[in-house]
């Protein structure tokens, strides 16, 4: 009986480690925050993200975020090495009611090492930046992300049965992520990055679940939940829900759909 239980645990662990590299939201992210994953060398992933307001803008807020937002852009794997990997890409983000936004484009890049690449049991490590572009104040563009210039560092480790745990820290532009409506004594342009994610081979090798948290008293601060289904060998769809910390800036919570397609 003990040998059978051990065998089942080893099989579950093997499935977890295998699927963790293939079934997830997008290679570069969890639900909302970055991850230590990178796009494989020579491949492109097209990400199409939509955010839909769960309810109308609260009466107590002066936020001008539109109920809907679209984010579309490619991520490209650009290093051919096994132990050090890199990706880069760009995003086109627009609000549904503001098609003529002056700052719709932003850029991102990441360098990472996979788990066990530095030594046995070493965590995955990543440093990178996203929402990179000309600085835009929160007043002028409260949610369009170009100019937030966020840089971050992350570490992650996959644990048997439990799943992958990630932790890190980020810092962004004070011009874009500091707002006079918030307490100036609190950190507004920096905060923790935390996440848990796990493929669910007990149900299906195509299924993935995740939860992440982005700290900081700014428009990005949130807790996010997502479930992803790999409906094709090269494509997956994540459906999630975002709970925004600072609703006076960010507006009410949102539903999100995130489609990722790999080429080739």
Structure in words:
The protein is mainly beta and 264 residues long. The chain has a single domain, classed as Porin. 10% of the residues lie in helices and 44% in strands. It has helices at residues 2-19, 174-177, 247-250; strands at residues 44-53, 68-77, 85-95, 105-113, 124-132, 150-159, 163-171, 190-199, 207-214, 222-232, 235-244, 254-263. A 12-stranded antiparallel β-barrel has the order 1-2-3-4-5-6-7-8-9-10-11-12.
What descriptors fit this protein?
Porin, mainly beta, 264 residues, disordered N terminus, globular, 12-stranded antiparallel β-barrel
Discrete helix count: 3
Q: Which value, in Å, is the CA radius of gyration?
A: 19 Å
Q: Name the helix and strand elements from N-terminus to C-terminus, one letter apiece.
A: HEEEEEEEHEEEEHE
CATH topology: Porin
Report the end-to-end length measured between terminal Cα atoms: 46 Å
The gross shape turns out to be globular
Q: Note the beta-strand portion.
A: 35-45%
User: Which structural class matches the secondary elements?
Assistant: mainly beta
* Main beta-sheet annotation: 12 strands, antiparallel, barrel
CATH superfamily: monomeric porin ompg
CATH class: Mainly Beta
Classify the helix fraction into a percent range: under 10%
Total number of domains? 1
Strand order of the largest sheet: 1-2-3-4-5-6-7-8-9-10-11-12
**Low-confidence spans:** 1-27, 59-63
Average pLDDT score? 82
CATH architecture: Beta Barrel
**Number of strand segments:** 12
Strand and helix map with partners:
Blueprint: H1 2-19, E1 44-53, E2 68-77, E3 85-95, E4 105-113, E5 124-132, E6 150-159, E7 163-171, H2 174-177, E8 190-199, E9 207-214, E10 222-232, E11 235-244, H3 247-250, E12 254-263
Antiparallel strand pairs: 1-2, 1-12, 2-3, 3-4, 4-5, 5-6, 6-7, 7-8, 8-9, 9-10, 10-11, 11-12
């Amino acid at each position: 009986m003990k040998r059978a239980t051990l065998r089942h645990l080893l099989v579950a662990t093997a499935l977890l480690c295998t699927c963790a590299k293939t079934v997830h939201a997008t290679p570069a992210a969890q639900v909302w925050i970055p991850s230590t994953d990178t796009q494989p060398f020579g491949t492109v992933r097209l990400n199409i993200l939509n955010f839909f307001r769960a309810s109308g803008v609260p009466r107590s807020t002066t936020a001008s975020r539109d109920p809907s937002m679209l984010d579309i852009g490619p991520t490209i794997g650009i290093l051919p090495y096994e132990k050090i990997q890199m990706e880069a890409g760009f995003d086109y983000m627009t609000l549904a009611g503001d098609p003529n936004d002056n700052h719709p484009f932003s850029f991102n890049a990441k360098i990472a090492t996979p788990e066990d690449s530095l030594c046995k049991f070493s965590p995955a490590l990543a440093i990178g930046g996203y929402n990179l572009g000309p600085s835009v104040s929160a007043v002028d563009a409260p949610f369009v992300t170009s100019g937030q210039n966020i840089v971050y560092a992350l570490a992650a480790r996959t644990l048997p049965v439990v799943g992958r745990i990630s932790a890190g820290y980020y810092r962004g532009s004070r011009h874009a992520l500091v707002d006079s409506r918030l307490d100036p004594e609190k950190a507004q342009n920096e905060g923790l990055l935390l996440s848990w994610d796990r493929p669910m081979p007990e149900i299906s090798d195509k299924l993935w679940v995740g939860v992440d948290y982005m700290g900081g008293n700014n428009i990005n601060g949130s807790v996010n939940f997502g479930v992803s289904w790999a409906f094709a060998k090269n494509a997956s769809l994540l459906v999630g829900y975002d709970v925004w910390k600072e609703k006076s800036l960010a507006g009410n919570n949102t539903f999100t759909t995130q489609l990722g397609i790999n080429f080739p």
